[in-house]
Amino acid sequence: MKYVSTRGHAGRPEFCDILLGGLAPDGGLYLPETYPRVSRAELDAWRKLSYAELAFEILSKFITDIPPADLKAICDKTYTAQVYRHARPGDDAAQITPVHWLEKGRLGLLELSNGPTLAFKDMAMQLLGNLFEYVLDKRGETINILGATSGDTGSAAEYAMRGKHGVRVFMLSPHGLMSPFQRAQMYSLQDDNIHNIAVTGMFDDAQDIVKAVSNDAAFKAKYKIGAVNSINWARVAAQVVYYFKGYFGATESSDQQVAFCVPSGNFGNICAGHIARMMGLPVAKLILATNENDVLDEFFRTGVYRPRKAAETRVTSSPSMDISKASNFERFAFDLVGRDPKKVAALWAEVDAGRAFDLSGTPEFARLGEFAFVSGASSHADRLATIRQVYEQYGVTLDTHTADGMKVAWDHAAGLPAGVPLLVLETALPVKFAETIREALGHEPERPADLEGIEKLPQRVEVMAPDVEAVKRFIVERV
């Protein structure tokens, strides 16, 4: 399997090369040269597999430069009930991502938050940690990971990489804008290879720094800078797996369809759903849900992609989606414009300059229906009302981001074909956003016993202005 850049760089690298690199040399994102197709026979055969077995089958289609026995061992090591141990009471932790039905056969939650940091990011990040260690050992190399987080990516990356030999992590986060629980998960880690930087700005400021450093080819090469944000293709590939697993959990035969509703900030999660559908997974609808930062919803409704400046980005009670420039959207745009890298490069020249682009009235936007996307947005008031309604009606507490997804799922449920089950992707457990849960329900959310008192642990973090050169100096001083 060879990979191409969304902006047309001439190289055709294999998986292990792009695993360590992040962005393509031209600033684009990597995608497979062609999407592998899955047959009906494969769907039937995969239905009975464990999560680790399914991960191996799917990832084998994207990763052809790791021996199959080694890749299988990595999947088996990653996807265990011991690692993903926080399933809801009554659900089978051995399934890794069980479906929790609210209405049997009609409406369910796809549990993706059972990992060590209680967020869906663990599903891909635990695999990424093991892949990094494997490839670095084989090559005798080291890597310095630079990432940005709006809440959950950071802790998932740090828990996956802590103690891994050959790996250092430098994680940027928006100062004071994550929940206390999220901050504690990251900043309380004392491992020597983990470094936290709190940027006095928004997530987009942190993400811009990561992109600027990654685009400095000389610095990136000298200091061996790698990426774990969802710009890293391996993250997206790993996420494809749980769409298939969710499909099998929600259907009885492979001639049925399913719909997914996905809370979306950086577009990585739902991009994996798009790729699963392109591979042949029977997906009737991909329902994209945003919060008040509705850049993506605006595009799917109007054809206008209008990234906001940091000052225009709203601070909300679903902070992991407080994003106004969705990095992974470029991957979908590549498919939307017929995989024409010149068109993508022209569009993102506008985005990188802080301007909007408008595809309304174009043949490209007219094709949008081929990809099964619909979208909607949610507000703080919607969030509170949804959390209350789900708790009162089903006895289930949702986190704030999943509540955004549930609200938008309800908005679109009537438009689905008869008999199509609707799965809302659970993106975190509610304890990560206790303040809003208290506001909605008047009591504390449940907390796993192994994370009691985490906010009281000593924290280690460097607060810095959003300055690319200052971040570079910080890295240089510690490698």
Automatic annotation (TrEMBL):
Gene3D superfamilies in the record: 3.40.50.1100, Threonine synthase, N-terminal domain
Keywords on record: Amino-acid biosynthesis, Lyase, Pyridoxal phosphate, Threonine biosynthesis
Occurrences of domain Tryptophan synthase beta chain-like PALP (ranges): 110-340
Known catalytic reactions: O-phospho-L-homoserine + H2O = L-threonine + phosphate
One Gene Ontology MF term: threonine synthase activity
Residues with PTM N6-(pyridoxal phosphate)lysine: 121
Pfam family, one: Thr_synth_N
Pathway involvement of the protein, from the record: Amino-acid biosynthesis; L-threonine biosynthesis; L-threonine from L-aspartate: step 5/5
Gene Ontology BP terms: threonine biosynthetic process
InterPro entries on file: Ser/Thr_deHydtase_PyrdxlP-BS, Thr_synth_N, Thr_synth_N_sf, Thr_synthase-like, Threonine_Synthase, TrpB-like_PALP, TrpB-like_PALP_sf
PANTHER family for the chain: THREONINE SYNTHASE FAMILY MEMBER, THREONINE SYNTHASE-LIKE 2
NCBIfam families registered for this protein in UniProt: thrC
This protein's record includes keyword Chloroplast: no
Protein name: Threonine synthase
Enzyme class: lyase
Requisite cofactors: pyridoxal 5'-phosphate
EC number: 4.2.3.1
Organism: Pseudothauera rhizosphaerae
Protein family: Belongs to the threonine synthase family.
All copies of domain Threonine synthase N-terminal, residue ranges: 2-79
